[in-house]
């Protein structure tokens, strides 16, 4: 029997460079996320939205914008995600900007160590999100979550899990990357991350990409998917604050989600950076829900399994 699903809203754009991602959780609810998942026989509980500090919209200090507020939000996210996991549920964090993945994945990593499980993180994103306060061009913490999770950042964020770093770089598979700052690129190479960028997808196809990204999963692996909606091509998903042309098409994205579902290993999920203020009639939220449905049972397969 499938695990129950827990929806956790985190309505903040505290780590972003543009306002609007704070409305992402409600846009996903308007797009009938809960009912869509329930249509596949899943039990879904919506815990509503977490509360945290408001966005002061201040300039960076020592290379970080809104560091104190980002820390506070990530503590709330960590505790909520960890609580859901400990109760045997599959948490879906509804963002909000991608800085919140620090708290989410820190909680998942802590839970995996307690359960003796291996962790694999699929980072679906147009951006590497591996900046630090030294190399960031903006100070926005939504460009730093993976670096923080790998131990590069302020101790209040790198120490959210039960050990520092929260995760090993070897656990990460980045997919769809196509916008990386120069200093960030050098850091990603130095840390040895597995990156399946858009050129790789263009050259080898989404099927081969996902086969490589999912290689080695076994029954003792917890798979976490951190899905930044700007992973998708902006022609089909305009409702994000940091659009980058040349992302996966609808069919490529569907194949990506279906192959993840085929593993049966999905244990937790982030849905990040949806910005309804930039969307058209909730088009991007509807698409995101459609893709999430593929993670939980919808398939184009007509042949028997």
Automatic annotation (TrEMBL):
One of its GO terms (molecular function) is arginase activity. The keyword Hydrolase applies. It comes from the Bacteria. Its cofactor is Mn(2+). It catalyses: L-arginine + H2O = urea + L-ornithine. Its EC number is 3.5.3.1. Binds 2 manganese ions per subunit. PROSITE patterns: ARGINASE_1, ARGINASE_2. Pathway: Nitrogen metabolism; urea cycle; L-ornithine and urea from L-arginine: step 1/1. Signal peptide: none annotated. Gene3D superfamilies: Ureohydrolase domain. Keywords: Arginine metabolism, Hydrolase, Manganese, Metal-binding. It is an enzyme of class 3 (hydrolase). The keyword Transmembrane does not apply. Belongs to the arginase family. PANTHER family: ARGINASE (PTHR43782). This is Arginase.
